[in-house]
Design a protein that fits this description.
Rab-GAP_TBC_sf; GTPase activation; 1144 residues; single chain; 7-stranded antiparallel β-sheet; alpha+beta; TBC1 domain family member 8; repeat; PH-domain like; coiled coil
Length: 1144
């Protein structure tokens, strides 16, 4: 165990301790007399001295000391009762600390760092022990308080767990605490007087991997868009990495892949997720992937045990997995023996007498007169009780009735499990006879037999030898069934894998596919389900059915089964029924090819349930809009190529070329690029081994063509090499006619290409690449799913920027930063507001520009952070008006493009564009009757018309200036004629709000006083224009008249009238009449406002001065989180008051 470092003098302990190992900074010592064969007396003497001299009579026989070179003071940092225990601590120090200490410059820093690290490890060990005893709440609460204080997150940011570790900053490690919450990875360190805080949202993580650096052999590296961060020196790095992996996977899929991803029930509410939930999810994911079970299955118990295997006449060590509807067994030795027992197959679960030879045994009996004996089960009583409870529930929910179909042929009877037979009537395995063609008119719907039986054709060359091979295979399978079982509950061993690799006989293929995929259980559990789906879905016309109709005649057109209406109609029914069952998937290309092959070897209803098993269990997320699952497996395949075929990877620097070629291998299970009679053998392996079979076969194909691929010059040549090879993969043992394909690249006059036998290719794939475990593949999938999802996010971002960049003058790099802020604002609401409209409207299937939308409150937050038009308390009002203006479709959401264009006008627009935007912000729909500030009366003296306007210019310049202004008005009128739509005139109420906004915008500006005087002048002028315009509305535009009036009055003014204001008593009578006019009679246009503003140079300078968006973006990145946190805190504090007001 680790010890709190306390200083000791080594010279006082020389006689009691013997040094076993030493390094530059650490010493491992053994207690004198301990472990010495002839040292009994010495050991007793030292023990007696310990009892006398030490307050603790029992001293651990091993310890590790920290020694700083040149110092006589040492610090014990670890002790152990056994050599094995102390060696584990020594190895940890060597791997995590020893090489790191060389980066420090002085001894004090070394001692301080090591002591701090050891203290953190002690706290970590204590926390782990408390967690095991479930006495953790107090410690966790203490960590939670620190987490909230240090990072200032809202309460909704649930802390999952925390660890002591080091974060590397360059070559220097920073000791601190790593906090893992539902949405963020956070690190805090206060070391050598310096504070370090890191916040990394999980949605920003682009890569999560275990790696090593110059100083550390094992670190966790977090890669985001701009940085890589290494974390090391964990007490249990495996545990930390698994929790990180789960958190990243759950959060990214919840926020970025909500198209098809469904969380486990325990993870539906993020604020309720715990560390234990994540660990359970990881175990659930592995369980479902390993046994290829439905996603709804929830794992309840995992128990070490041994299973009696009659074929080996011994008990096989392994683990039992018990879920809602299954009891499964996996041997400790990979591939030795696996068993899947659906509870609907189980008849009884009984405890046997406990003996020394059979400790804690139970017997599970199934309907096929087989029994499975498990022994060495811990907590047997509780396990059996839970199993019986779930067994009762499964049988109570079962709607299937077990029947004895004695009239069925013996081949079918062999495979009837819960579906429709009593397995007591087993017969001898025989080949099913070739079926005769059934007249389409008399054929029942759906088809009651596999199409291969109806449209079977024997091979032309050596039919007898081919059939004899089939019979030999069938005989081997018959012998296997007798020894290992013949239902879904059969013992699955290496022997059955070899039989599958040889190719399943055609007469058994469809039935074995049902058993290996466990689609037979779904079939038995849902009697009549498929028929009802067909009735409900047929005859309906929609986009999906149109796509299905378009692809029907492209599905195996070379096979006779799909050259007439029988096969086409069956394919239509299955695809349409599945699209009706699962609208999230609907129909995807390549489903037609797969389904057509399933129909060849299985009855129509069986083919439907096989399709369900493939799409929903065996190839998850493959068949959807973005084919995320297929892309993830392509990324995994690339990594496998680098690991297993390094020479090929070295030659082909960009493996994405191979990935694009191999995509169809995965989507169609080689059916679209290999002759059918060969590809069905691949499908055999897939149904038995899952996606692992496709990975290893793909590697075998690449290895067989590695030399040619290394010599290829371009992608086209590589495609041709692989296509030609796969086109010549033959199956000489196939009993049917070879079915032609459309992938031949060479004409008949070229020399023949060597043929590869499919059985040899599959055997090579198992021998050379069959060591990839399900656990490894699932781990790689989790790792690469992050990369694929972030790749989609990057694609979305680049497409949005490509559309927006031509529309704005903001620099591309600044626009990219703005997009990141926009997306982060969307994400922040998703983190802490599950009912946010943005969260509900995020859809990856939408056009790129509409995938991320923000609502009014999110827009307001962003506006405060990045807009140059800040107006103090008025800012929020202006932001709300801007949002209403941009929300053209009135759905209360806006996309990035509208936001960026609006912001571009504020920063880079010409003065007339900025004024036009401000003008529109004070007209409906931006300004509403219920606007927070729209009801305020006109009280500000700066807006009074009782002070006539006098231009502060000399008389000589005034005439020329008025001519210039008149010309500008004419130019604006011409420009207005060219515009598509004329903006409505502004009423006096709207104009008052417009002036208030301008007045607020000048607050804290360096030229604040000049701007206030200028806006007062302009406001007075515009009020007078509105009055004159109302009186002269019958005669058209009054601008020229009014300017002449202004000129006359201005020239009559005395030279000492430089002020913008004069005495009220001197105001002309006709100006003062404006005060008595009603608001409805008063209007002013955009042209009048713009022309008036142009009369004041300070206002022109204000609107035309260059604005720096970079500094705003930098500040926004820093303050975005705190602004949201403060907003949520304010809402929480106001909630009680709102409740009281409501109750009143």
């Amino acid at each position: 165990m680790w010890l709190k470092p306390e200083e000791v003098l080594l010279k006082n302990a020389l006689k009691l301790w013997v040094t076993q190992k030493s390094s530059c900074y650490f010493i491992l010592q053994r207690r004198r007399g301990h472990g010495e064969g002839s040292g009994r007396f010495t050991g007793r003497l030292v023990g007696a001295l310990d009892a006398v001299l030490d307050s603790n009579a029992r001293v651990a026989p091993f310890r590790i000391l920290l020694q700083v070179p040149g110092s006589q003071v040492y610090s014990p940092i670890a002790c152990g009762a056994t050599l094995e225990e102390i060696n584990q601590h020594w190895e940890w120090l060597e791997q995590n600390l020893l090489h790191t200490l060389s980066v420090f410059d002085n001894k004090e820093d070394i001692a301080s760092f090591v002591k701090g690290k050891i203290k953190a490890l002690i706290a970590e060990e204590t926390r782990s022990k408390l967690a095991e005893q479930e006495e953790e709440p107090e410690k966790f609460r203490e960590a939670l308080v620190k987490f909230e204080a240090r990072f200032n997150f809202p309460e909704a940011e649930k802390l999952i767990t925390y660890y002591s570790c080091c974060c590397w900053k360059g070559r220097v490690p920073r000791q601190g605490w790593l906090y893992l919450s539902i949405n963020h990875l956070c690190f805090y360190s206060f070391f050598l007087g310096k504070e370090l805080k890191l916040i990394v949202p999980w949605v920003d993580v682009q890569k999560l991997e275990r790696t090593c650096n110059v100083f550390m052999t094992d670190t966790i590296r977090i890669t985001t868009q701009n940085k890589e961060r290494d974390f090391s020196m964990f007490l249990n790095l495996d545990e930390v990495f698994k929790i990180m992996e789960q958190l990243a996977d759950v959060t990214l899929r919840r926020l970025l892949d909500n198209e098809i991803f469904e969380l486990d029930p325990d993870l539906q509410e993020p604020t309720q997720i715990t560390k234990r939930d994540l660990e359970a999810r990881a175990q659930n994911e592995f369980f479902r992937a390993f046994f290829r079970l439905p996603r709804k299955e929830k794992l309840h118990e995992v128990v070490d045990c041994s299973l009696w295997t009659p074929f080996s006449r011994c008990h096989t060590v392994g683990r039992m997995f018990a879920s809602d509807s299954y009891v499964c067994f996996a041997s400790k030795e990979d591939g030795c023996c696996n068993v899947v027992l659906p509870l609907r197959e189980v008849v009884s679960i009984e405890k046997m007498e406990d003996t020394s030879l059979l400790p804690n045994p139970i017997i599970i009996s199934i309907r096929s007169k087989m029994a499975f004996q498990f022994i060495e089960l811990k907590d047997r009583e509780s396990l059996v009780e839970n199993l019986l409870m779930r067994l009762k529930q499964v049988h109570a929910n079962s709607v299937a009735h077990y029947k004895t179909l004695r009239n069925e042929d013996t081949t079918s009877a062999l495979f009837q499990s819960t579906s429709m037979c009593n397995d007591s009537n087993f017969g001898t395995l025989k080949m099913s006879p070739n079926g005769n063609k059934v007249d389409k008119e008399s054929s029942p719907l759906p088809n009651s037999e596999a199409l291969i039986a109806v449209f079977h054709q024997s091979g032309i060359q050596s039919p007898d030898s081919r059939m004899s091979r089939e019979q030999i295979k069938a005989s081997l399978w018959s012998d296997h069934f007798v020894e290992y079982g013949r239902t879904v509950c059969m013992f699955r061993t290496e022997k059955i894998r070899k039989l599958v690799a040889m190719g399943i006989p055609e007469s058994l293929r469809g039935k074995l596919w049902l058993l290996f995929s466990d689609a037979v259980t779904d079939l038995a559990s849902h009697p009549g389900y498929y028929g009802n789906l067909v009735e409900e879905s047929m005859g309906k016309c929609c986009l999906v059915t149109e796509e299905i109709e378009r692809d029907l005649h492209r599905s195996l057109p070379e096979h006779p089964a799909f050259q007439n209406e029988t096969g086409i109609a069956a394919l239509r029914r299955v695809l349409t029924a599945y699209a009706h069952r699962n609208p999230k998937i609907g129909y995807c290309q390549s489903m037609n090819i797969l389904t057509s092959v399933l129909l060849l070897y299985a009855k129509e209803e069986e083919a439907f349930w096989l399709l369900v098993a493939v799409c929903e269990r065996m190839l998850p997320d493959y068949f959807n809009h973005r084919v995320i699952g297929a892309q993830v497996d392509q990324s995994v395949f690339e990594e496998l190529i680098r690991e297993r075929l390094p020479e090929l990877a070295e030659h082909m620097k960009d493996l994405s070329t191979l990935a694009s070629i191999s995509l169809s291998w995965f989507l169609t299970l080689f059916l679209s690029i290999m002759p059918l009679e060969s590809a069905v053998n691949v499908v055999d392996c897939f149904f038995y081994d899952g996606i692992k079979a496709i990975f290893q076969l793909g590697l075998a194909v690449l290895e067989a063509n590695a030399m040619e691929l290394c010599g290829s010059k371009d992608d086209g040549q590589a495609l041709m090499i692989l296509s030609r090879f796969l086109d010549h993969v033959k199956n000489e043992e196939s009993p049917g006619l070879p079915v032609g394909n459309h992938h031949t690249f060479f004409s008949d006059d070229q020399e023949p290409f060597p043929v590869t036998e499919i059985a040899d290719l599959i055997r090579d794939s198992y021998e050379k690449f069959g060591d990839q475990s399900v656990e490894l593949i699932e781990h790689m999938r989790c790792k690469h799913r992050i990369r694929v999802l972030q790749g989609h996010e990057d694609t979305t971002k680049q497409n949005v920027l490509r559309v927006v960049i031509p529309e704005v003058s903001i620099l591309p790099e600044d626009l990219e930063e703005l997009y990141d802020l926009f997306k982060r604002e969307h994400m922040i609401s998703c983190y802490w507001e599950q009912t946010s409209p943005a969260f509900q409207h995020h859809d990856p299937n939408r056009p790129y520009a509409e995938q991320y939308l923000i609502d009014a409150q999110q827009f307001t937050n962003l506006y405060k952070l990045v807009s140059p038009w800040t107006c103090g308390a008025h800012t929020e009002i202006l932001a709300e008006r801007t949002f209403r203006l941009l929300d053209e479709n009135m759905d209360h959401l806006i996309a990035f493009k509208g936001f960026a264009i609006c912001l571009d006008v504020m920063y880079n627009g010409e003065m007339n564009e900025k004024i036009k935007l401000l003008y529109r912000l004070h007209l409906p729909p931006a300004l509403t009757e219920n606007d927070k500030d729209s009801q305020s009366p006109l009280k500000n003296p700066l807006l009074s018309t009782s002070r006539p306007l006098v231009f502060g210019k000399s008389n000589g310049d005034t005439i020329d200036y008025q001519k210039q202004l008149k010309q500008m008005l004419k130019d604006l009128a011409k420009e207005k004629d060219k515009t598509e739509k004329e903006l409505p005139k502004m009423s006096q109420r709207e104009f008052i709000q417009f002036c208030k906004t301008l007045y607020s915008m000048f607050h804290e500006d360096p030229e604040e006083n000049d701007l206030y005087q200028a806006i007062a002048t302009v406001t007075t002028l515009l009020l007078q224009i509105g009055e004159v315009g109302q009186r002269s509305s019958s005669s058209g535009s009054c601008s020229d008249e009014y300017m002449e009036d202004i000129q006359t009055e201005g020239s009559a003014s005395t030279s000492d009238q430089d002020s913008v204001f004069t005495d009220v008593g001197k105001m002309p009578q006709r100006y003062s009449q404006a005060l008595t006019m009603t608001e409805g009679d008063w209007t002013v246009s955009l042209e009048h406002i713009l022309a008036s503003l142009l009369t004041e140079q300070s206002l022109v300078n204000f609107f035309e001065k260059p604005l720096d968006i970079k500094s705003k973006l930098e500040n926004a990145k820093i303050n975005q989180y705190s602004l949201k946190t403060n907003e949520m805190s304010r809402q929480i504090s106001l909630a009680p008051q709102l409740l009281l007001n409501f109750l009143k």
